[in-house]
TrEMBL record:
Keywords in alphabetical order: Signal
Keyword Signal: yes
Upper lineage: Bacteria, Pseudomonadati, Pseudomonadota, Alphaproteobacteria, Acetobacterales
Keyword Signal on entry: yes
Stated name of the protein: CHAT domain-containing protein
Annotated source species: Plastoroseomonas hellenica
Signal peptide limits: 1-18
Region annotation (Disordered) ranges: 985-1011
PROSITE patterns membership: PROKAR_LIPOPROTEIN
Residues annotated as domain CHAT: 664-978
Transmembrane spans: none
Alphabetical list of Pfam families matching this protein: CHAT, TPR_12
C-alpha cells in the first residue's frame, strides 16, 4: 500500500474514483459512435471506440474501449503498445509495471497463466475478481501484430478482447481455437451473467451512495436492496463479495430505526467480510456495526466498536497519510482513498458517540483529527466539512455552549447548501441551528431557520426526526401566545410543521402508493415522466458532488454542465406536471389546513398529534379552524401507557381475558383528546392520525370518563361518541380522498378462509433445524380456524355474492389468490392467521398464512409475504384483514401500519379493516358480518364498523355473553383509511335492524383466538 504524489496523479485519476466504490477503470461512454466488435460470450453485441489511455510501461499506439449489450460503461479496455512480444516481455508486463499496478488497484488477480488466444498468438491470462462487487474479471497480455497488447474487462468480454487485440475477426476453425477461452470457460459457465448485470449493480450502488449522502435512507434502502438482488442472483447468497451491498442495505435500514432487520444483515456481512476481494470490507463491517449500535441508542457500546473500525481502516492507510505533515496532492490509490475516508468518518462517528455518551469534551479533538487527515490527503470535500461542523456543534451543545453550537450549526448548514443544496442534510442542520437559537432566546432567528429548513423538507418530500421538529412547534406556540391577532395563522403553521416529522417509512409508503392510484392510474406516460424527473434529480446531485471534490482551478465547464442539468430537471418537472397535474401535490409530505379542510365533511373532525422526548402537541381541524395544544405526554410515557393498556386487553399466558385497565384508557384520552373537546364536540366521525406507539391502539376503546371494569357495557368509550377512522398522516387522508369516486369493480365480494395448516414435515423443510427449528415449532401452533368458514360465508350471503366468491380450506392457496383477478371485487376478505415481521426469526417479512398446495414438498407456498402482495392489482373499497395483528405495533414505536397493511394500500385498497390483537372467532365473525350488512345498507365503512361494535357492547349480557363488553371482543378491529364513504351523511347506528346475531351459531360465540 502506498501514496502516489506526482505529475501522474491527474493522469491516474482519469480512471479512479474520489470515494468508494473504486470502479475507476470505467468511464462514461456514448461520446462518439462505436464500430461493431462482434458478440461477447453471452451473445450480446459489442461496439468499440477510442478510449482513454491508462498508465503503461511502453509507448501507446492506441487505446480502445468496448461496450456490450447496451451498457453505458466499458466492458473492457484494450491498450496496444509498441515493443517486443517475446515470452519474457509478456511475463514482465503481466507480473509488474505501471499497467499491472493500475490493474491491482481495482481487481484481485491470480498468477499469470501462459496460454494462447484465437489464431494461436501467445498470451498470459490473469483470472481476477473485482474488488467492489466481486464480479469475475479477466486481464490478458497478448502478443499482437504491432506489439504487446494489455487488456482487462468483464469476464464475458474475453472473446471481444481477443478479436480487438489481433485487429481482425478470427475464423472459428479448430486451428484458431482460443486456449485462453478454454481456461475461462468453466468460470464463465458457472457465473451466468451479462455485462448489463455488472452495469446495473454499479449504477444501483452509486445511486444508493448518492441517496445515503443526502440522507434519503428509504430510497437508499431500495437501491441497495436491488443491487444485492442482482449480486445474489448471479454470484449466490454466500459469495463473500456481496458484502458491500449487504452493508449498504444494513446501515440504511438501521438509519430508519429497524434494528432487528439491520442486525440480520450485519451478521451475514460479518461472516463474509474477511473473505471479500475488497480489503476494506472488514473495517467497513466494524464501522457500520458501530453505527447500528449507536442507532439502537447505545452510544457507549458503539465507542469501542468504532475504535476497532479505526484500527482496521488504519491498517490499509499508507504511512505517509498518517504522518503529521502537510502533503499536497491526491491519494490516487482507490484502496487508500477508501481507507482514509473510512478512517475519517469512523473518527467523526466516534466523536458523535462520545457526545451522546456524555463525553463531549473528547469529541472536538477527534473531529479535528478527522478533518486534518482528509486535508492532508486532499479529500476533505465540502460535505465532509459540513458533517464535521455539525458533529462539533453537537458536542458544544452537550457542554451547554449554546451560542457556539448555534454558530457552528449555521456554518454547517452553509456548507451543505453548497455540497447538497436543497437536500435533507441542509434542512436538518437548519432545524438544529434553529433549536440552538431558540435556547438563546432569539425566537425570530430560530423561526427564520426553521422556516428555511421546512421549505426544503416540503420541496424534496423528505422527513425529519420528531425531536428536531418539536422545537419548531415550541417557537410557534410561544409566538402565537405573544401575538393573538396572528393566532390562527400560527396554529395553521403548527399543523403543517408537525407533518414534517415521520417515524419510519410508513407514511412515505402510503403516500407513494396513494399517488400511484390517484395520479398515474396505470398511465405509462405518467410513469415515464416521473422516472425522468427522478433521474434528472440524481444527475444534478452527481454533478454537485463532482464540483465538490474537483481539483483546484477554474470550474467554468463543470458549472456549465450543472446549469444544463438544472434546465433538464426543470423541463422534466414540467413534463410531470403536464402528464399528471396532481403528482407534485400528491407526493408532498405535508398538507396545509385548507387542503385538509376541503376533504373533511361538515360532521367530521381530524385529530393529529406529535409526541417528543419531553412533551408533545395535539391538534384538530374542524370547519377550517385549527386547534393546537401542548400536552405533557411524552413519547416514552405514551409507550409505557400503551403497553400497560394492551396488556389489559390481550389474552394472558393462561389464555384468559385480563381486567381492562380503565385508568390507562382514561389517562390517554385526557392527554390526547380532552384538550381538543371543544373542537371535536358533535363530530359524527373522528379521523385520527396517531403517533408512535399510539398507532397500535384502536382509539375507540379510550375512555372519556370514569368506568367500572365490572360494568364495561355502560362505560363511556370513545366509540359511543364518534365513528372512528385511523390514518397514518393527514396527508395520507388527503391523497386517499383525492382519487375521484369509489371502486369501479363490477363484483361486490370475494372471501378466503379456513386455511389448511402445513404439516410438521413441510414446516421442517421450510425451516431447517440448524437455523430455524424454533420457527417450525412456533408455526405448528398456528392451527386451523374453522370459525372463519362461517365468517366468510355470512359475508358472502350479506353481499349477495355467488357461491364461487368464497374459497375455503384447500382452495385458500396463493395460486388461487393470484388467479382470482382481485381487481374485479369491491371487498376482499382474508380470514386467517397473520404474522408480523420478526415473529418468526427466519421470516423477516409480514406474512399471511394460506393453505399449502396439495402434495407440496415444503411450506413455502403457505406463507404469502408482503412483497408478494405488492404485485397484486386491485380496485377495492375495503380489504378486510380479519387476522391476528395485521395492524399491530410491528416495529419500533408502533409504526403506523404493519407491512401487510402497507402492501394492500400499495396494491390499490382505499380502506383496510385490520385487527390489533388475536381475535375471538365468534366475536370477529359477528363484527365483520354486521359491519358488512350495515355497509351494504348504505352506511360508510366507519359508521358500519361503529354500529357493529356498539351491537356487541349493547347486547353483552343480553343476547350475547356478558364478557363481550370487554374491548378484547369488540375493539380489535380498526378502520385504516376510508373504505367506502357514504355519499351524503353517516348512517346512524340505528338505521338498520339489529338482527345479524342469528348468522353466528351459538357455539362460535366463544370461538378460538387467531394467534
Amino acid at each position: 500500500m502506498r501514496l502516489r504524489f506526482s505529475a501522474m496523479v491527474l493522469f491516474l485519476l482519469l480512471g479512479a474514483c474520489a470515494e468508494p466504490p473504486p470502479e475507476a477503470y470505467v468511464t462514461r461512454g456514448g461520446g462518439q459512435a462505436g464500430q461493431p466488435a462482434g458478440n461477447d460470450s453471452r451473445g450480446d453485441a459489442c461496439t468499440v471506440q477510442a478510449g482513454r489511455q491508462p498508465p503503461a510501461d511502453r509507448p501507446v499506439i492506441r487505446a480502445q474501449e468496448t461496450y456490450c449489450g447496451g451498457w453505458s460503461q466499458p466492458a473492457a479496455r484494450i491498450i496496444h503498445l509498441r515493443g517486443a512480444t517475446g515470452a519474457a516481455d509478456l511475463d514482465a508486463l503481466a507480473a509488474s509495471g505501471l499497467w499491472r499496478s493500475w490493474l491491482d488497484l481495482r481487481v484481485a488477480c491470480g498468477a499469470p497463466v501462459a496460454t494462447t488466444v484465437a489464431g494461436g498468438a501467445a498470451a498470459r491470462l490473469l483470472s481476477c475478481t473485482r474488488r467492489s462487487g466481486g464480479w469475475p474479471h479477466v486481464a490478458l497480455v497478448i502478443a499482437g501484430a504491432e506489439g504487446p497488447v494489455v487488456a482487462d474487462g468483464v469476464a464475458t468480454a474475453t472473446p471481444v478482447i481477443e478479436r480487438l487485440a489481433l485487429g481482425r475477426q478470427v475464423a472459428g476453425d479448430a486451428g484458431s481455437r482460443s486456449a485462453a477461452m478454454q481456461l475461462a470457460v468453466t468460470r464463465l459457465a458457472a457465473d451466468a451473467f451479462r455485462t448489463g448485470d455488472v452495469g446495473r449493480y454499479e449504477e444501483l450502488m452509486r445511486l444508493g451512495a448518492d441517496l445515503n449522502q443526502t440522507e434519503n435512507y428509504t430510497a437508499a434502502e431500495e437501491a441497495y436492496r436491488a443491487a444485492l438482488a442482482v449480486q445474489e442472483r448471479v454470484l449466490g447468497r454466500d459469495n463473500p463479495n456481496i458484502v458491500g451491498a449487504l452493508l449498504g442495505l444494513a446501515v440504511n435500514i438501521s438509519n430508519q430505526q429497524r434494528p432487528r432487520e439491520a442486525q440480520i444483515l450485519l451478521d451475514r456481512a460479518g461472516q463474509l467480510a474477511p473473505q471479500a476481494a475488497d480489503v476494506i470490507a472488514p473495517a467497513r463491517y466494524l464501522h457500520y456495526t458501530g453505527l447500528a449500535t449507536m442507532n439502537r441508542g447505545d452510544a457507549a457500546a458503539a465507542i469501542p466498536i468504532l475504535e476497532q473500525a479505526e484500527t482496521a481502516y488504519r491498517a490499509q492507510v499508507p504511512q505517509e497519510a498518517l504522518e503529521d505533515t502537510n502533503v499536497a496532492g491526491i491519494v490516487a490509490d482507490p484502496i487508500a482513498q477508501s481507507a482514509i475516508l473510512g478512517l475519517a468518518e469512523a473518527k467523526r462517528n466516534r466523536a458523535l458517540a462520545l457526545t451522546r455518551a456524555g463525553r463531549s469534551a473528547e469529541a472536538t479533538a477527534l473531529v479535528n483529527e478527522a478533518r486534518t487527515l482528509l486535508r492532508r490527503a486532499g479529500l476533505e470535500a465540502t460535505i465532509t466539512i459540513g458533517r464535521a461542523l455539525r458533529t462539533q456543534a453537537g458536542a458544544e451543545a452537550r457542554r451547554g455552549r449554546t451560542e457556539a453550537a448555534a454558530r457552528l450549526m449555521e456554518q454547517a448548514a452553509n456548507r451543505f447548501a453548497v455540497a447538497v443544496p436543497g437536500e435533507r442534510p441542509e434542512a436538518i442542520t437548519l432545524f438544529l441551528a434553529g433549536s440552538q437559537r431558540l435556547l438563546t432566546g432569539r425566537r425570530a432567528e430560530a423561526l427564520s431557520a426553521f422556516r428555511a429548513g421546512a421549505a426544503i423538507v416540503r420541496a424534496r418530500q423528505v422527513a425529519l426526526p420528531v425531536e428536531a421538529v418539536i422545537p419548531y412547534l415550541d417557537a410557534l406556540n410561544a409566538e402565537a401566545a405573544a401575538s393573538p391577532a396572528q393566532d390562527q395563522a400560527l396554529r395553521a403553521e403548527m399543523f403543517a410543521a408537525a407533518q414534517l416529522a415521520q417515524r419510519g417509512s410508513t407514511a412515505r409508503f402510503v403516500q407513494q402508493a396513494s399517488a400511484r392510484v390517484g395520479a398515474a392510474g396505470g398511465d405509462t406516460r405518467v410513469a415515464e415522466a416521473v422516472r425522468g424527473l427522478q433521474e434528472a434529480d440524481r444527475a444534478l446531485r452527481t454533478l454537485f458532488n463532482e464540483r465538490d471534490v474537483a481539483l483546484g482551478g477554474g470550474n467554468a465547464e463543470l458549472d456549465a454542465r450543472i446549469n444544463a442539468a438544472q434546465q433538464r430537471r426543470n423541463e422534466a418537472e414540467s413534463e410531470v406536471a403536464a402528464a399528471a397535474p396532481g403528482y407534485r401535490q400528491l407526493l408532498l409530505t405535508a398538507v396545509d389546513t385548507p387542503a385538509v379542510a376541503r376533504v373533511l365533511a361538515p360532521d367530521e373532525a381530524l385529530v393529529t398529534m406529535l409526541l417528543g422526548p419531553r412533551h408533545g402537541y395535539v391538534m384538530a381541524i374542524r370547519r377550517g379552524t385549527v386547534t393546537a395544544v401542548r400536552t405533557t405526554l411524552s413519547e416514552a410515557e405514551a409507550n409505557q401507557r400503551v403497553q400497560r393498556l394492551r396488556a389489559s386487553i390481550e389474552l394472558n399466558a393462561q389464555g384468559q381475558v385480563p381486567v381492562f385497565d380503565v385508568a390507562e384508557a382514561r389517562a390517554l384520552h385526557a392527554a390526547l383528546l380532552a384538550p381538543l373537546a371543544a373542537a371535536t364536540e358533535g363530530a359524527a366521525t373522528l379521523i385520527v392520525a396517531p403517533d408512535g406507539a399510539l398507532l397500535s391502539l384502536p382509539f375507540g376503546l379510550l375512555l372519556a370518563g370514569p368506568a367500572d371494569p365490572a360494568a364495561l357495557g355502560r362505560a363511556p368509550f370513545l366509540i359511543r361518541r364518534h365513528a372512528i377512522v385511523h390514518v397514518p398522516s393527514p396527508q395520507a387522508l388527503a391523497t386517499l380522498r383525492a382519487a375521484p369516486g369509489g371502486s369501479a369493480a363490477p363484483l361486490p365480494y370475494i372471501g378466503f378462509g379456513d386455511f389448511v395448516p402445513p404439516t410438521p414435515a413441510q414446516l421442517a423443510r421450510s425451516f431447517p433445524a440448524d437455523r430455524c427449528g424454533e420457527d417450525a415449532r412456533l408455526a405448528q401452533g398456528l392451527g386451523r380456524l374453522p370459525g372463519t368458514r362461517t365468517e366468510v360465508q355470512a359475508a358472502r350471503q350479506l353481499t349477495g355474492s355467488a357461491p364461487d366468491a368464497v374459497l375455503l380450506g384447500g382452495d385458500f392457496t396463493a395460486a388461487k389468490l393470484r388467479q382470482a383477478r382481485l381487481g374485479q371485487y369491491r371487498i376482499l376478505h382474508l380470514a386467517t392467521h397473520a404474522l408480523l415481521a420478526g415473529e418468526l426469526n427466519c421470516l423477516p417479512e409480514p406474512t399471511i398464512l394460506l393453505s399449502a398446495p396439495a402434495g407440496a414438498a415444503d411450506a413455502n407456498a403457505a406463507f404469502m409475504r408482503a412483497s408478494e402482495v405488492l404485485n397484486i392489482q386491485m380496485d377495492a373499497d375495503l380489504v378486510i384483514l380479519s387476522a391476528c395483528n395485521t395492524g399491530g405495533a410491528g416495529g419500533a414505536g408502533g409504526e403506523a401500519l404493519s407491512g401487510l397493511a402497507r402492501a394492500f394500500f400499495y396494491a390499490g385498497a382505499r380502506g383496510l379493516l385490520i385487527t390489533h390483537w388475536a381475535v375471538d372467532d365468534g366475536a370477529a365473525a359477528l363484527t365483520v358480518a354486521d359491519a358488512i350488512r350495515r355497509q351494504q345498507g348504505g352506511a360508510s365503512s366507519a359508521a358500519a364498523l361503529r354500529g357493529a361494535q356498539l351491537l356487541l357492547l349493547d347486547e353483552a349480557g343480553g343476547r350475547l355473553p356478558a364478557n363481550f363488553a370487554h374491548p378484547y371482543y369488540w375493539a380489535p378491529f380498526a378502520l385504516i383509511g376510508d373504505g367506502r364513504r357514504a355519499p351524503a351523511r353517516n348512517a346512524s347506528v340505528n338505521d338498520a335492524p339489529r338482527s345479524p346475531i342469528a348468522t353466528v351459531p351459538a357455539g362460535d360465540t366463544a370461538g378460538a383466538s387467531r394467534l
